[in-house]
Specification:
Elements (H helix, E strand, L loop, with lengths): L8 E7 L6 H20 L6 E4 L6 H13 L3 E8 L9 H6 L4 E5 L13 H6 L2 H14 L5 E4 L5 H20 L3 E5 L13 H8 L2 E5 L1 H9 L3 H14 L1 E2 L10 H21 L3 E4 L13 H8 L3 E4 L4 H12 L7 E10 L6 E5 L14 E4 L11 E4 L5 E10 L4 E11 L13 E5 L3 H10 L5 E5 L4 H11 L2 E5 L5 H18 L1
Parallel strand pairs: 1-2, 1-3, 3-4, 4-5, 6-7, 6-9, 8-13, 9-10, 16-19
Antiparallel strand pairs: 11-12, 11-18, 12-17, 13-14, 15-16, 15-18, 16-17
Amino acid sequence: MNIDLKAFEVWFVTGSQDLYGEQTLLEVAEHAREIARYVSAHDNIPVQVVYKPIVKNSEEIYNTIAQANAQTNCVGIITWMHTFSPAKMWIRGLQALQKPLLHLHTQYNRDIPWDTMDMDFMNLNQSAHGDREFGHIVSRLNIPRKVVTGHWQDEEVIERINVWTRAAAAWQDWQGAKFVRFGDNMRNVAVTDGDKVAAETQFGFSVNTYAVGDLVAVIAQVSAREIDELLDEYERSYEMAENVKTGGENRDSLKEAARIEIGIRKFLVEGNFKGFTDTFEDLHGIAQLPGIAVQRLMADGYGFAGEGDWKTPALVRACKVMGAGLKGTTAFMEDYTYNFTPGSAMVLGSHMLEVDAALAAGKPRVEVHPLGIGGKADPARLVFNGISGAALNASLVDMGTRFRLIVNKVEGVPVTNDLPKLPVARVLWKPLPDMKIGCSAWILAGGAHHTAYSLSLTPEYLEDFARIAGIEYVAIDEDTTLTKLENELRWNELYYMLRK
């Protein structure tokens, strides 16, 4: 599943007014065009930044915003007030805005030309108070946006724009997206379920259940030739345990795993789905729990979570869009067990079989082993240790009255133990600010045991995404204390109650 962020556009809209003479407006337009070209061409900007003619009155503002709303590949608009732009004329357009908004508070010149500056220069370069006028009306209208301040050639400014464009692209990817749940939610589990109607209303993606039999019918049509071709791909891509090679005692198990992968992939492609979930409690007609199939599909960009958890596949997919082309990856993950050794406290993350193969520190190994849950045949899976480095865990939960996105900064730790009796993908990390506070904060915030684990994103991406989505964002990082967090959660509860 190809994720091409260059297919998306961000529109660069510059405000001015009719009060200025023709020459001044020509200069405003040329400066705006130059900034848009520079940002668009920058190596760190993944989308196209498209210059739009400067807007000088209410009609031009409204028409430009209406066109942006209608343009499906436009993921958001960047606004900048080169001169003063009276904000009352922005009201109608901003009230109609349906795209994410970034307010770039910059000016064309980096330095004040001390020796030559005159009133003509001052009249032209008025961003310092033009952007304040614009910012006031956006705040008064209570429109969420990101504000980035600094010169447009500043690398930090470019990076903050990059983060927002990726979050905006992920939001656009959710609009009309479809996720499939094979079977139902794992019985009696709370956090992985939720209100799918509320989710579609809030987020724009739909989740619908399909009988496992619908998938089984597709799997049954897979040909022997397709299986052989996929087995050849496995052998080219991974290390192979002896017993899964041609003639090995578990070769048939691997063939069945390949059949399942081909069937799921066909189902997703034909239904135009961007992710899926299943549960080991409902696999009637499937010989084994999908393991290697899920790992490889996630590596290709699909979202996934186990046990009927439909919110996490959507979050994993959004993170994969945000991280497209960046170093690292985002994977479905579960906090599985703890190491409480003093001075080396950490979490071991895994999930039976289904951890994204793109997370591997080395070449994954194809193995077949029994699985002591689900009552199915021995499944094939890719076994590997996860890469280390700065990372995060993110969880999207339904709090009943609203959705909450919880993000914990963590530090991925190299897996140095052999773990000979744990033949699954393994990932280690240390939560920030430390194990005790990080885990306690997660539990206080109501975070799920399923997460999107990302080594390609920083919390800023998820914060931008939550702002665009209009949902609660809770950060757990090096500055977190439990007292501050509990107070924040109480204040958030009051805010969302009053907002409703």
